[in-house]
Design goal:
Elements lengths: L8 H6 L1 H16 L18 H23 L13
């Protein structure tokens, strides 16, 4: 099932339990018409679009840069702000 039409990547990643429950409800409502009972589902593999993946990678790199500056400054460096596009 492709949930990209229903939910954004950010929603899926930040609210996995709620998303899982929504998917279960949707599947259950469709399966009951075919006399199939669904007890539980497990989301095992998510693929995010390239823009979202790149944004997460840039954020991680920026966080690592901040930590690197703190270590070089002896841990007392003022916090740096960064922007994820």
């Amino acid at each position: 099932m492709n949930c990209s039409a229903l939910l954004s990547c950010a929603a899926v990643s930040s609210r996995a339990a709620q998303v899982s429950e929504q998917i279960k409800d949707l599947l259950t409502s469709k399966a009951v018409e075919m006399y199939i009972a669904i007890d539980d589902i497990s989301i095992t593999h998510l693929v995010f679009d390239e823009d979202f993946t790149n944004a997460i990678e840039r954020k991680q790199v920026a966080q690592q840069d901040v930590e690197r500056v703190k270590v070089r400054a002896g841990g007392d460096a003022p916090p740096l702000s960064y922007r994820v596009a």
